[in-house]
Amino acid sequence: MNFQQHNVWDLSFLETDCKTVIGRRFDVPTDQELFALAERGGADLQELRESIARWSKGSAWLNLTEQQYRRLLRPKDKGKQS
Q1: What is the pTM of this model?
Q2: Where would I find the H helices in 1-82?
């Protein structure tokens, strides 16, 4: 997962080759939601905190379940928020 802050946290996801973008981009409005998402994906939260404190951007390695990965690949349903 790559992330950077603008008015919201802009998230994108990459395959294990760290080059191929998968799924769609997500806008996450708060730090708390970013941390909750990263925690569900098994990210190193201390590393995430350090990246945010230093640069307001960074990346985190996620260990997704098969179900989480499949949900990431699905297009956004119209009328629903991410």
Answers
A1: 0.80
A2: 31-40, 45-55, 66-73
Give 21-72 pLDDT, tens digit per residue: 998 889 999 999 999 999 999 999 999 999 999 999 999 999 999 999 998 8
Count of domains in the chain? 1
Give the pLDDT confidence score for residue 1 in this predicted structure.
Answer: 94
Q: Give bridge partners of residue 11 from the DSSP assignment.
A: 3, 26
Question: Is 80 domain-assigned?
Answer: no
| 18/78 Cα distance (integer angstroms) | 29
Domain, as residue range, for 35: 2-73
- Cα–Cα distances in angstroms (integers) from residue 6 to residues 10, 66, 73, 74, in the given order: 7, 30, 24, 25
| H helix or E strand, kind and range, residue 42 | none
The answer to whether position 49 is within a domain reads yes
